[in-house]
Amino acid sequence: MSRGVARILSGVALAALVVLSVSPVPAPKPARADTLPMVTDVDLTAQITQLLAGYKGTYRVSVRELGGAGRSVSIRGTSRVEPASTIKLFYAWLALRQVDAGRLSLTTKLASGYSVSSCLRLMISLSDNPCSTDIRERLGNRWINAQLAQQGFPGTYIVVNSSGGYVTKRVTTRDLVELYSRIEAETGLSAGSTALLHRLLQGQIWRFRLTSGLESGVMAETKSGQLLLTDGMVEADTGIVYGPTTTYAVAVIGTGGASKYAVRRISQMIYEHFEAPVVTPARFPVAQFHAASQTALRTAPGGGVTAWLSAGTHVEVVATERNWYQVKAAGRTGWVWYSTLALVPEYRW
């Protein structure tokens, strides 16, 4: 059994975290996972390049085998690009470093009134945007940029205006793979914060890109993103894959009308190159949750009740506003409170 599989943890609900200070973290730099020996996998690079020639858009791909022969791939891996929600992984990592440095307390409320722990859960497991903004603003745009540069992520930063206000963000797939490599190597965070981040990633519910390209039952801890820009869709996903014989970090970001199916196909190609042909592809139902008890379906967060969902009703989450989930269920669309839902078995590692 791989070390990753042995680390399976139950649930995604977390205890509250605490106060964010934006003062610099004095802790020493983490050990650099990218100092480990790496060997460019020429064959895999050629296969992915040929595959991408058949898809619309421009893709950046980085792969790093964490152990073994240290095989790696970099296709535009240092290209700085709009990352969609994959940037949230860096926000979480930096917030947890503040926890480890003693600059967070376990009960701090952010500007929205939500605790840091609640926003970490929502930001990573459900990709909630309001909580991402809460955490980013508490850390500070310029502080985040200074820390990312200091910690060895040269291609990842927030684009700010002259007053330091948020404009947009940039990431490289090289930096995403480096961050995942550190998470897996347990460098840069305490054991407790590392376990917390693994648990959040295991609860991530958007699994129709990297994870769906794997063999059924193979665990992956991923953070995906999707964003529509004027030149087309951004499709991104990044994660650690715990295969039967090897573990590897992977990041894919496609722009200019990219396809999530291309990301899935890249994932399958990498898995089959490192492991074996996929016989039974991983499949996840559209409905990630079911109603744990009778649940009110509302017109808006905290709005009027339009229907009641009986216990066991399958529920597809399509968006979130912090702890309010917009869902499709029983032929209706509405909003439900998070604690009334439970993950279906297929989404539990």
List its salient traits.
single chain, 15 strands, six-stranded mixed sheet, SH3 type barrels, alpha+beta, 349 residues, 28% helix, Beta-lactamase, disordered N terminus, five-stranded antiparallel sheet, globular
CATH class of the largest domain: Alpha Beta
Task: Tell me the span between the first and last alpha carbons.
Answer: 14 Å
- What's the rounded overall pLDDT mean? 91
Query: What is the beta-strand fraction?
Result: 25-35%
CATH architecture of the largest domain: 3-Layer(aba) Sandwich
Strand order of the largest sheet: 1-3-2-8-7-6
- Structural class call reads alpha+beta
The helix tally amounts to 9
Low-confidence stretches: 1-34
Summarize the structure in words.
- The relative contact order is 0.16.
- Helix 2 runs antiparallel to helix 9 (260-274) and helix 3 (88-100) packs across helix 5.
- The protein has helices spanning 3-6, 42-52, 88-100, 116-125, 129-139, 141-150, 173-185, 191-202, 260-274; strands at residues 39-40, 58-65, 71-75, 157-160, 166-170, 219-229, 232-242, 247-255, 289-291, 295-298, 305-309, 314-321, 324-329, 332-337, 341-343.
- Helices cover 28% and strands 26% of the residues.
- The longest helix has 15 residues, at 260-274.
- By secondary structure, it is of the alpha+beta class.
- Mean pLDDT is 91; it is low at 1-34.
- The chain has a six-stranded mixed β-sheet with strand order 1-3-2-8-7-6, with helices on both faces. Strands 14-13-12-9-15 form a five-stranded antiparallel β-sheet. A two-stranded antiparallel ribbon has the order 4-5.
- The chain has nine helices and 15 strands.
- It has two domains: 3-274, 3-Layer(aba) Sandwich (Beta-lactamase); 289-347, Roll (SH3 type barrels), CATH 2.30.30.
